[in-house]
Amino acid sequence: MKRWYCILPVLLLAGNATLAQRPPSINSPEVKADHSITFRYYARNAQSVIVKGELLTAPVPMTKDTAGIWSVTVPPVKPDIYPYSFVVDNVELADPNNTLIFANERFKRSIVDIPGNEPLVHALQNVPHGKLSYRYYTSTTLGATRTLLVYTPPGFMANGTTKYPVLYLIHGGSDTEETWTKVGRAHFIADNLIAKKLATPMIIVMPYGNVRPRPMPDFTRDMIDDIIPFIQSNYPVLTDSKHRAVAGFSVGGGQTLNIGLTNTDKFGYIAAYAPYTATEEFQKNFSNWSPDAGKINAQVKLFTISVGTEDFLFESVKKNLAMFKEKNIRVKSYIVPGGHTWMNCKQYLATTLQEIFK
Amino acid sequence: MKRWYCILPVLLLAGNATLAQRPPSINSPEVKADHSITFRYYARNAQSVIVKGELLTAPVPMTKDTAGIWSVTVPPVKPDIYPYSFVVDNVELADPNNTLIFANERFKRSIVDIPGNEPLVHALQNVPHGKLSYRYYTSTTLGATRTLLVYTPPGFMANGTTKYPVLYLIHGGSDTEETWTKVGRAHFIADNLIAKKLATPMIIVMPYGNVRPRPMPDFTRDMIDDIIPFIQSNYPVLTDSKHRAVAGFSVGGGQTLNIGLTNTDKFGYIAAYAPYTATEEFQKNFSNWSPDAGKINAQVKLFTISVGTEDFLFESVKKNLAMFKEKNIRVKSYIVPGGHTWMNCKQYLATTLQEIFK
């Protein structure tokens, strides 16, 4: 999806702006064959331009050429998709010349995709592609028309005789319904794993989980009373619990635990990624919890919790794992390197997609 | 789609950032019932914060409170969707707290949606909604897998007996395949007009038109040889020229003229919005043009050119209108108030959707 850049006539741009107001066309980020990256930014009068992000061990200053273009080339980086931003005279912003944006409510960052020598699991590969659809459903719980994204697998037939299992996949705390695809590339991960027959063809539903002011209880109701019925009315899906999964990251991981473990008759698979559980709802559901472990273990085919050892929630997640184990709930843990990042999220999802609906 | 904002625990956010690095949660833009708008931005140490955009006659300075939050309330604005940006100590950026982004390759701006007292033609209304799908097609012309967006109307059946007409809709010069939906709300305009029976149910295909280095000839080939065949293989569509339309804005308007008028056997409807025609391709196709006007007028059911009187291309468009008329090509012009803006684009599209496939 990389764009090609060149000097385009400045008048081509939208808006009645004059030529003088428009910066020159700039190629940023430029990912080289050796996986080094050149970042560029035009600011004739800036005093300082810095690039920062999880791909760098520390922020890196850029230098200005005589045309007012700041740039820096950073050494080769491990292939992955990383967020980054520029800091221009102390003002943080997304790279104006990069169309790839981290979908988020509270910051604007860019993302850079460093391809692997062999295609990574999240890469756009030459395989059959599913369809990613933006749908609008009426939430009676929330009294609003809301957006969700639906991935249907390659070969999907809306009116066919094949019925599909469904994964409900929830983003992190200030993310949006687009973050799992724009940053997490969930649709490409599914395409690639389905092409290799490592994942079962499935529908993936990505709702918007930031229900306020009560994110946990109201979103659980929206999921059960509105989202699942909307999907079941509009797609040919299998409706028993063994063909329904819920997964989510961070706040969405906490929502996953709350939704899944209080509805084990409805979800045969529960996958929490670095779940954030310091919430009233989690306290309410699990602090004086006396679960019927035998029943839950019989209902839930697979319950997993994934976390990175550098994740700021690592200790909290370990406590939750211990709590679930102490209650004799069967839980599989994936403790991996890495932090509370979307680099890790993609790996967690790739693992889940290979484990569910088998 | 307005999000609700409140003070969320800062730890909820993605990334291993510490609390100190995170700005407070901020509601911006806040659109009031009287259509005034409050913009907010957090910057404890900034010297100057300004909001600018086509909704303002001039940039407006913001003022800082003791918590470091800059804000300004601008007087009521005519309901519409407008781009805007902040300028912080001379650095222009999108509003970090607004998820609505102007999809563009060369700048990052936010958009603000001021609802009408009666719903506007582009508003998300309580009507049946079509589906907006992100699809991936192989371009043999360009040797790449490329993205396009496909709107299918409410009630669409992929394998049904109903076959649909198709509008191919092209963005402006530095826009992306998402600009017609993210900024132009083409899918909501179609939903609303179809619900009122003012538009015929149709498929709308929104490709990525910025083919470089030769945007015009190579994109024309991609359209004819790759995009149209992909749609015709994957959707139940009518394939005669009377059920195929092409429309586009600015550079995409120029592409529309080049694609449509050199393929009048394939496009029964051609709609150019503020077309940019100072291109080699336009010169090649139309400078020594001796068209068979009778044949073209018989093939093309409707050829329209729309432009605003304040558009920087207004004089150029008038010359092109005169040229087409001089060649006896039947062309309908819509000269309206307004500039080279996406506010105008939405109106141009709403007009086209009511005219085609009738």
Quick overview of this protein structure:
Two copies of one chain form a homodimer. In chain A, 24% of the residues lie in helices and 26% in strands.
Q: Could you describe the largest sheet of chain A, including whether it forms a barrel? A: 8 strands, mixed
CATH-scheme architecture of the largest domain in chain A: 3-Layer(aba) Sandwich
What is the distance, rounded to the nearest whole angstrom, between the alpha carbons of the first and last residues of chain A?
A: 32 Å
How does the overall form of chain A come out from the CA principal axes?
globular
SS strand fraction of chain A: 25-35%
| Low-confidence sequence ranges of chain A | 1-20
Sheet with the most strands: spatial strand order of chain A: 11-12-14-13-15-16-17-18
CATH class of the largest domain in chain A: Alpha Beta
CATH evolutionary superfamily of the largest domain in chain A: Alpha/Beta hydrolase fold, catalytic domain
The total tally of domains of chain A equals: 2
Helical residue percent of chain A? 10-25%
Q: What value does the average pLDDT of chain A take?
A: 92
Number of extended strands of chain A: 18
**Biggest interface pair, residues each?**
A-B, 77 and 77 residues
InterPro entries (chains A, B): AB_hydrolase_fold (IPR029058), Esterase-like (IPR000801), Glyco_hydro_13_N (IPR004193), Ig-like_fold (IPR013783), Ig_E-set (IPR014756), Mycobacterial_A85_antigen (IPR050583)
Pfam family, one (chains A, B): CBM_48
Keywords (chains A, B): Signal
Domain Glycoside hydrolase family 13 N-terminal (chains A, B): 34-95
